[in-house]
Design a protein that fits this description.
A: mainly beta, seven-stranded mixed β-sheet, four-stranded antiparallel β-sheet, 0% helix, B: mainly beta, six-stranded mixed β-sheet, 12 strands, 52% strand
């Protein structure tokens, strides 16, 4: 059974460019989460969706960040314009509905903004 | 607001010895508690969870965790450490109004 699939695995781009990160959740999962991991701040929840609807985006750093989930099998996280301080590893995770359900993580996108 | 604390940035254990990685939590209501492991360049992997019932929870790779309500703790344990257990371990708590809250992580280093 395929896990959560993220693409690309690595992204290097210059500041000011638009960056789009992609995620395919596990089939049948109803919740999807985007996280950011840095050495300084650890693991931060950016936004999560239930049944394709954004529930809590309070962790999104600023208006430069946006996330969409057009259907149950695909989500994007977009940064426009990108800045060097956005450099981090971005993880997508999915789970069944319910606070007692474990989240399943993809292997992340390592983003470097020059 | 809910929170979780992992008081040790790093834990060093000799191979074959028992290991403990500590976690304490704060949440209003009944907690849902999780442990995850992260290997280099990989995403977090679910190890085990406590929702209700027996205070000793068994999980993957021989790990277990003990829920202690009076001490608000959920320490991760393994009777005999392997070098391959070396990784970054995260405790997480849910069940309050917020989603899942992760700790800062503890680096576990198993020395041969």
């Amino acid at each position: 059974d395929a896990g959560v699939i993220q693409s690309p695995r690595h992204e290097v781009t210059e500041m000011g460019q638009e960056v789009t990160l992609r995620c395919k959740p596990i089939s049948g999962h109803n919740s999807l989460f985007w996280y950011r991991q840095t050495m300084m701040r650890g693991l931060e929840l950016l936004i999560y969706f239930n049944n394709n609807v954004p529930i809590d985006d309070s962790g999104m750093p600023e208006d430069r960040f946006s996330a969409k989930m057009p259907n149950a099998s695909f989500s994007t996280l977009k940064i426009q314009p990108s800045e060097p301080r956005d450099s981090a590893v971005y993880f997508c995770a999915s789970s069944l509905l319910g606070r007692d359900q474990p989240q399943h993580f993809g292997d992340g996108t390592r983003l470097s903004i020059l | 607001a809910q929170s979780v604390a992992q008081p040790e940035d790093q834990v060093n254990v000799a191979e074959g010895n028992p290991l403990t990685v500590k976690c304490t939590y704060s949440v209003s209501g009944n907690p849902y508690l999780f442990w995850y492991v992260q290997y280099p360049n990989r995403g977090l992997q679910f190890l085990l969870k406590y929702i209700t019932g027996d205070n000793l929870v068994k999980g993957s790779y021989g790990f277990e965790a003990e829920f202690n309500k009076s001490q608000t703790s959920f320490h991760l344990k393994k009777p005999s450490a392997l070098v391959s257990d070396s990784a970054l371990y995260f405790c997480a708590v849910g069940g309050g109004a917020d989603g899942l809250t992760f700790g800062k992580g503890t680096h576990l280093i198993i020395q041969p």
